């Protein structure tokens, strides 16, 4: 089974690399934001620059996890190949697991430009251990967003998944403080912010890489969102399985 998962992951990753525009967009936009807003305004402040680096790294990762996975899963469901794969003895799980692994690979690739900009153009600083722990936290942090992406991908058509995933993604990113520091957000957004999953991941990244004190409410909220997203993704998969293959 593991060899099948790896084979599917390799195939799906190659498919994405053959049309790399979505990967490039997901990686370049956070880096451009870094150059335009972080470098000139907070690039000389080590702590602020480090926190901004963590935020924009996760912004790109979150985009790939939520919008990328939702769209590709929805597209997979509309391909003639997909029903055939789901009737094979191995079932749909190797391909689905391969899709998740391929998405994780693109998520990790998306953080590289932000790290390069941060290292070359700002005073952001952290230790190698904190950086590795931060990358580990980023991988764990994208899990609820991948689950949300799976939910959208299993309940929407490919055309519907594109706008819906964007509508879900951007408000979460803004309210979570990924584009602007939480303390300068409007009052009503600042009140809601700790209850969004993006804020929970941001707090975790800031605590690991910049040695800040995390917001407990945000971390508890992140755990709750993860459980809720897992339940929603499982329900959406069973719903799709029942409608199309029962």
Write a structural description.
This protein has 246 residues and is mainly alpha-helical. It has one domain. Helices cover 82% and strands 0% of the residues. It is built from 12 helices and no strands. It has helices spanning 2-18, 21-42, 46-77, 81-87, 93-110, 112-121, 128-141, 143-155, 158-175, 187-192, 197-210, 216-245. The longest helix has 32 residues, at 46-77. The two termini are 24 Å apart.
Strand content: under 5%
> What integer is the average pLDDT?
90
Number of helices: 12
How many domains?
1
Which residues sit in consecutive blocks of at least 5 with pLDDT less than 50?
none
H/E element order: HHHHHHHHHHHH
Strand tally: 0
What is the C-alpha radius of gyration, as a whole number of Å?
18 Å
Give the structural class.
Answer: mainly alpha
Principal-axis shape: globular
Major beta sheet summary? none
Q: Alpha-carbon distance between the termini?
A: 24 Å
Helicity range of the residues?
Answer: over 70%
Pfam family, one: ABC2_membrane
Subcellular location: Membrane
Domain ABC-2 type transporter transmembrane: 14-195
Main location: membrane
Question: What's the short story on this structure?
Answer:
The protein is mainly α and 246 residues long. It has one domain (2-245). Helix content is 82%, strand content 0%.
Provide keyphrases for this structure:
246 residues; mainly alpha; single chain; transmembrane; Nod_factor_ABC_transporter
